[in-house]
Q: What sequence folds into this?
């Protein structure tokens, strides 16, 4: 006998239920179904997900601790508005970590090739007709490109810190890839960075990488409320048409 959605929820362990709600809300923020500045109540979330308020509250306070939400005790919850000064600080730390990772990679012997770099070659050093056009998928691959560069350097603490920063800036990086010229430019720039690393041209690779990230950071400054609402419209399923 199959359980209904409500029955499955009733059977679900409380900690698993809170985790599922947390992941769903986080996805809603990253996919622009919840926009910066949006307000809502615990009751609205509980009703939408057909759960009690207790696991919803646990998930919301976890997102608050991670700096995605803020709570107003008389008027519910709000997705935190963009703090561009904070994002720029995160970008600066990211640049430091990635430049150091490139230095480590370029200091290795020419014949020493990591599996991560091989994987990146297969993804980014491709012919124009083999490139992906879906901005959302290219955004995901772009984040993976930068994370793999740091992972390939071999310092686990650097990789951990870089992954945390990457998640915090993911939402604005995705907005950057709503524009097709940025998708094409990413392939070109990643290809140039990889070619310089593979040739062990450290200063060139670091300059290309810094410029690539600085351009992305500058594009983030151009994000407007219209772009946010457009992103939400693209994330919503098309309405059903009555027969």
A:
């Amino acid at each position: 006998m199959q359980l209904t959605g409500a029955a499955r929820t009733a059977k679900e362990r409380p900690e698993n239920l809170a985790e599922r709600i947390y992941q769903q809300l986080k996805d809603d923020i990253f996919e622009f179904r919840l926009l910066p500045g949006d307000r809502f109540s615990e009751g609205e979330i509980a009703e939408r997900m057909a759960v009690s308020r207790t696991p919803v509250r646990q998930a919301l306070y976890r997102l608050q601790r991670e700096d995605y939400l803020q709570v107003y005790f008389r008027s519910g919850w709000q997705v935190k508005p963009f703090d561009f000064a904070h994002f720029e600080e995160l970008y600066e730390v990211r640049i430091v970590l990635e430049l150091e990772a490139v230095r480590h990679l370029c200091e290795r012997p020419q014949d020493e090739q990591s599996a991560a770099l091989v994987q990146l070659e297969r993804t980014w050093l491709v012919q124009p007709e083999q490139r992906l056009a879906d901005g959302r998928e290219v955004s995901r691959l772009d984040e993976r490109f930068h994370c793999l560069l740091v992972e390939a350097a071999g310092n686990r603490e650097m990789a951990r810190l870089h992954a945390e920063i990457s998640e915090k800036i993911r939402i604005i990086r995705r907005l950057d890839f709503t524009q097709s010229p940025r998708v094409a430019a990413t392939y070109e720039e990643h290809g140039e960075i990889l070619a310089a690393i593979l040739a062990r041209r450290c200063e060139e690779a670091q300059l290309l990488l810094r410029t690539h990230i600085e351009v992305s950071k500058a594009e983030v400054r151009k994000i407007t409320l219209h772009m946010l609402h457009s992103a939400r419209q693209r994330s919503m399923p098309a309405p059903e048409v009555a027969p």
In short: Residues 97 and 222 are 25 Å apart (CA to CA). The chain has two domains: 5-81, 84-227. The longest helix spans residues 84-106. Confidence is low (pLDDT under 50) at residues 238-243.
